[in-house]
Specification:
The chain is an alpha/beta fold. Helices cover 42% and strands 14% of the residues. It contains 13 helices and eight strands. Strands 1, 2, 3, 4, 5, 6, 7 and 8 form an eight-stranded mixed β-sheet that branches. Strand 1, helix 2 and strand 2 form a beta-alpha-beta unit. Helix 8 packs across helix 9.
């Protein structure tokens, strides 16, 4: 299928990256290739772009796009950005440093529309997979049918901030006693049946938070982000820029906290009069307040509604 994806806050991200011809950059989340293509054009003729994605569909799709774009300075890498440092060693050198790195987290339109993945609650009868790539061994179906109600509730609560986490988990546990839950519409029906009717008329679909939490759990997205951010900073040159666009409050919280800590010279508790940790600031925060999409962009691309951009510069 065609890999459809509109990059969010592309103009703003490019501005913070301060791209110059001849510089090298990393796009940690290739997706439809919007960021990669924009970067590749601006760094010609000598600059290179390392574009990474765990989804093989994204990699294969962009191989064809490169031919149409007539760009020869893009290196495509199939893998998980949690292994960022190792991938740089494989495709560049062990001591390679970059002028900028960008993460555009979250789902693409192509992934949502792919019936074989089961990411969307709008796809009737789609399998409960929710995997970004083949290397991810767990499936949402396995989680739904094997974990105790308390464990399911914890996933829905911690990763989805679902108000009715325990009620939904109990309903799932009751339903699977008679039949295994294997399809998206089965799960949606259970969720809507467990939530009090007066809460079913909100702006967002009642299954949104549960599906979101399962996706995060299946793909270990939050732990992977925590692993990738320090690697990204270590791979930047002095003055290099890091831009992260997130779509979930938990992701944004991780980025915000990491930036806050790495922008300080000391992490000791305030009660200690003398620094004992020896920590030195690695970055300077460029976005004191989180940046959001403009109203015009949200109208043209509804996915941009929840996007949050944070940027930092390597000291």
């Amino acid at each position: 299928m065609e890999y459809k994806h509109t990059p969010v806050m592309l103009k703003e991200a490019m501005g913070y990256l301060a791209i110059k011809p001849g510089n090298n950059y990393i796009d940690c989340t290739l997706g439809g290739g919007g960021y990669t293509a924009a970067l590749a054009k601006k760094v010609l003729p000598e600059g290179k772009i390392l574009a990474i994605d765990l989804d093989e569909m994204a990699i294969n799709n962009f191989k064809f796009k490169i031919l149409n774009l007539k760009l020869s300075n893009i290196i495509l890498a199939h893998g998980n950005f949690k292994n960022l440092s190792e991938m740089v060693k494989e495709y560049f050198t062990a001591d390679a440093k970059f002028d900028g790195i960008v993460f555009d987290l979250g789902l693409s339109g192509a992934q949502l529309e792919d019936r074989s993945r089961g990411f969307s609650f709008n796809l009737t009868g789609a399998p409960l997979g929710m995997n970004f790539g083949e290397e991810i061994g767990e499936r949402a179906e396995n989680i739904i049918n094997s974990l105790e109600a308390e464990e399911l509730a914890k996933i829905f609560r911690d990763y989805g901030e679902e108000k009715f986490a325990y009620k939904i988990a109990l309903a799932i546990a009751a339903e699977r006693r008679s039949a295994r839950i294997t399809a998206t519409d089965q799960l949606v029906k259970i969720i809507t049946g467990a939530i009090p009717k007066r809460f079913l008329r909100g702006k967002i679909h009642p299954a949104t938070k549960v599906f979101q939490s399962l996706r995060l759990a299946v793909n270990r997205e939050l732990p992977n982000l925590r692993e990738a951010l320090p690697q990204a900073v270590s791979l930047l040159k002095s003055g290099g820029k890091l831009v992260v666009i997130s779509y979930h409050s938990l992701e944004d919280r991780i980025v915000k906290q990491y930036f806050k800590e790495e922008a300080k010279d000391c992490l000791c508790p305030p009660a200690r009069p003398v620094c004992q940790c020896g920590h030195k600031a690695l970055i300077k925060i460029l976005t004191r307040k989180v940046l959001r999409s403009t109203g015009e962009e949200v109208l043209n691309n509804p996915r941009a509604r929840s996007a949050k951009l944070r940027a930092a510069e390597k000291i």
